[in-house]
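Hey,
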Amino acid sequence: MSNKKLTYGEIWKTLRAIDTTKIQYQKSGLDYIGWADAWACLMDNYPESTYEFPSPTFYFDTEDKKTCKVNCKVTIGDLSREFSLPVMTSMMPMKSIVNPTSRDITDAEARCLVKVLAMFGLGLHLWEKGKTKNDSKTMPKVTDFGGF
C-alpha cells in the first residue's frame, strides 16, 4: 500500500471520468443523480470517505416565517469540500420553503451531499451550462487545486 497522499487533482480526474448516465434520473426536465448512487460511486473509489451535516442555518422574517439552508462537508482522506444549499421546492421554479419540515431539511441535505460530490468532480457536468457527459470538447487540464 502506498503512503502517497491524495490530491484534489487526482480525485477530480478519477470522479470526473465516471460515466454517470446509468445512474441519472430526470424530474421536471432536469437530470440529476440520487444521493445513494452518488455515494456508492464515491465509496467504490474512495471507501475512506466521510460526510457530515452541520446544523442548518435558519432565517426569520418579520412575520415569524422561517427559511433555512443546509450545509454538507465531505472528506476524502485529508481533503475536504463544503457546500450549502437552501431548503427549497424540487419543482420548477425552485423557491425557498417557508417553515420547512424535518423531511424538507433532510431532502435538502441529500441534494447538498450530491452537490459537494460534484465539487470533487462526480457528475459536475449536470450543472455545467451547455455541457453533457458526451461532449467532445476537451476539459481544461487540472494539475491540482485545493478547497475553497
